[in-house]
Specification:
Elements: E1 10-13, E2 34-35, E3 38-39, H1 40-50, E4 55-60, H2 66-71, E5 80-85, H3 86-90, H4 95-107, E6 111-115, E7 118-119, H5 127-135, E8 140-145, E9 156-158, E10 164-165, E11 176-185, H6 202-210, E12 214-218, E13 224-225, H7 229-238
Parallel strand pairs: 1-4, 1-6, 4-5, 8-12
Antiparallel strand pairs: 2-3, 6-11, 7-13, 8-11, 9-10, 9-11
């Protein structure tokens, strides 16, 4: 009999330099910048703790000593924080797939992954979704969002059955959406990426698509890629009423 999954560990991607956010990121890593009164990454930590996640790995590189100094061991949120320090161990960030591969010994056989620089206060890291993923055989399940103005064409196509396609090979009429940078993954997603190797995630995702092993869901709640000083200022000036918090309309697709 299979043991029910209560919840999975999570990896928060926080190693990037944040070039578009300069000069703010010259002195502060982007996930530690304040959004509506607290560091952006703390919104994630609070949400993960609320939804039953207990072990969280944070990969770091740029100004990485600030993360444990600010966040500590996670006990204040009821979490156990672990740090995968790419700067210390490899001299710099390993990109997304490389960061995932390095962190695998701390993550196990299935895990959540989310970017430390998106603001998505309503997202639920549902244990039921985690359990369903573990019971299946997909290498990954990504959450997609309606396309924001800065990604008008989207990243991937999502069909009505919840399968993710490359845009150029999807059946005619299959809508394209933007990757939210939130997903559930297995180590198979980064198979072939060596620990310590710098590697992007997109080739891994496309390999999974070609193998029929990538599922998707559409998230229709507010989602903001906090990638520029302007977006950060708009979020902080407008608060919950900021126009950035209004989720755009989207065609019908499997939802979170």
């Amino acid at each position: 009999m299979t043991t029910p999954v209560r919840q999975l560990p999570a990896l928060i991607l926080a190693a990037g330099r944040g070039e578009r956010m300069r000069p703010l990121t010259d002195t502060t890593p982007k996930p530690l910048l304040s959004v509506q009164g607290k560091p952006l990454i703390v919104w994630h930590l609070e949400a993960l703790a609320r939804d039953g996640v207990r072990d969280v790995v944070i990969n770091t590189a740029h100004l990485e000593d600030q993360f444990p100094a600010v966040l500590g061991d996670g006990a204040r949120w009821g979490l156990r924080l672990h740090y995968s320090m790419e700067g210390r161990d490899h001299g710099g960030a390993l990109e997304t797939a490389g960061g995932m591969a390095k962190a695998l010994p701390q993550l196990g056989e299935a895990f959540w992954v989310l970017a430390g620089d998106v603001f998505v206060p309503g997202f639920r890291f549902e244990s039921a979704a985690a359990e369903a993923f573990v019971q299946g055989d997909d290498w990954g399940q990504m959450w997609l969002v309606p396309n924001p103005p800065h990604v008008p064409q989207g990243d991937f196509a999502l069909d009505a059955t919840g399968r993710v396609w490359r845009k150029d090979t999807a059946p005619a009429g299959t809508p394209a959406y933007t990757y939210s940078t939130i997903g559930l993954y297995r180590p198979a997603m980064v198979a072939g990426v060596r620990a310590g190797e710098k590697a992007a995630l997109r080739p891994c995702l496309e390999r999974a698509i070609d193998a029929g092993k990538l599922a998707g869901r559409l998230y229709k709640g507010p989602w903001v890629d906090v990638g520029t000083p302007q977006r950060l200022a708009e979020l902080n000036d407008g608060g919950p009423a900021s126009p950035l918090m209004a989720a755009p309309a989207a065609p019908s697709a499997p939802s979170a």
